[in-house]
Write a structure and sequence with these properties.
Blueprint lengths: L2 E3 L4 E3 L1 H14 L4 E3 L13 E3 L8 H4 L11 H5 L6 E3 L1 H14 L15 H18 L3 E3 L1
Antiparallel strand pairs: 1-2, 3-4, 5-6
Helix pairs in contact: 4-5
Length: 142
């Protein structure tokens, strides 16, 4: 079992998807930190999270429903649920452009896990986003 994202964006382990998003976030200048507070539930405690303004991310945005694309379209991906939802064409195009900017900054190496080559995996996501935009379709997460 794992994450499937339409338009051949992603097929693989949820953990690999999380590491990939964290690497993108770090590359873009976001801080990633471990959650270690005492009242965190067992799942969250000790895991890495991208430090964005989570208090202002709505449940609708977690599922991909944005009234407008954020100033940094990467937030659409960072904040997205890792098991369901969509990325609409209105956000997919700007997100593809943002990932294209980050692509040459990613490591030129193979990941120790299920990602493989960071740049190849990212290019596949970009290509899928662009295919969805061209077709006028949502990118679906399942």
């Amino acid at each position: 079992m794992g994450l499937w994202v339409s338009h051949e964006c992603w097929t693989g382990a949820y953990s690999a998807f999380s590491r990939w998003r964290e690497r993108l976030a770090r590359t873009a200048g976001y801080t990633v930190a471990k959650v270690t507070w005492e009242d965190a539930d067992t799942f969250m405690n000790g895991h890495d999270f991208v430090l964005i303004d989570w208090g202002h991310v709505t449940n609708e945005q977690l599922m991909g429903d944005w009234d407008e694309t954020p100033a940094d379209p990467l937030l659409v991906l960072i904040a997205h649920s890792d098991c369901e939802g969509v990325i609409h064409p209105a956000q997919a195009g700007p997100l593809a452009d943002r990932l294209t900017e980050l692509l040459p900054l990613l490591p030129d190496e193979v990941d120790r896990g299920h990602i493989g080559d960071w740049r190849t995996k990212t290019q596949a996501f970009i290509d899928g986003l662009r295919a969805a935009v061209e077709a006028g379709e949502d990118v679906e997460f399942a």
